[in-house]
Amino acid sequence: MTTGQELMMRGTVMNNGVKIALEILIWRLNLMTAMREQGEHSGSVNKGKEQVVAAGLKDEDDGYESEGLWDVPVSDDEGDPLFRRYPLYKGLKNIKEYKWEVGTMYVDRNAFKECVTSYAVHSGRGIWFSKCDSHRCKAVCKEGCKWFAYCHKMKREDSWQLTSCYKKHTCSMATKIGIMSSQWLSKAFMKKICENPKIKLRSLIKKAHSKWNVDLTMTKAARVKQQALDEINGTYGEQYRRIHDYAAELLRPMIGLDGCFIKTPYGGQLLTAIGWDPNDQILPIAYAVVEAETKDSWIWFLLNLCDDLGVDKIRWCTFMSDQQKVTLNLNLYN
């Protein structure tokens, strides 16, 4: 990448001498950065890689005789016939009307299982998983019904593909769905529990019956509510655990620059650089006695400050002049 700098000023104009000195400092730091990076980057050639996804239905695994997959390149262009032939599964609101299509792609096994569970709950079918391992997953309906859906893991990828299915049901609807787990229900009720963390268990049971016509026990409703609350509160807990990371990003080093007269028979002026810690404590960084507060004196002072602190430390500092509500961010990035 190209080395550059971002110079932002807000409010009133800074002391002219300090501003010019900082601009010269930026130029010097850019020059030092460019010299350091010279030779490290020799240019790169981006090589395009052909995207490969499973799109066939022939198994090449020695351990299985079921429907399988072979890999063919697929264009990124949505007009490509192969791209249109094998769609990627996306969650639907009305999953009851979901159309099972051989060749449909799933991100992983959990995506397929969640699709089957949602379909079973919304359609009121007694579906269960007869096979489920690291390579294959088969969902079947209750005894006497011919409906099934078989999904297989693609070779050299994490995605899964529906390789065969029978779409029609020959069974009656059920009110007890065995694969309707508390984890799935906690996701379904997440918004409602987040809006009302003190919601009663009977309200969840009534909601499940009115929405999906399924029976939910008090014990399962309690697990659903607790899992949802753990997920909600866990999110806040994770944010609080990262508060120091946020502080490191937001509370970047601040350096205040100022000068004052020295009231002695010899005269002169005092140039200072101070810093603040997270507790708002003022810490002196450097000071120098000069004849007068001029552009040359500020350049000399800041260049020495840069040499002492180092390029890597000073490049992200924010400078404030004369305790004014105006800052100059010295951001050098690659």
UniProtKB/TrEMBL annotation:
Source taxon at top rank: Eukaryota
Pfam families named among the record's database cross-references: MULE (PF10551)
The MULE transposase domain, residue ranges: 255-325
InterPro entries in alphabetical order: MULE_transposase_dom (IPR018289)
Name the UniProt record assigns to this protein: MULE transposase domain-containing protein
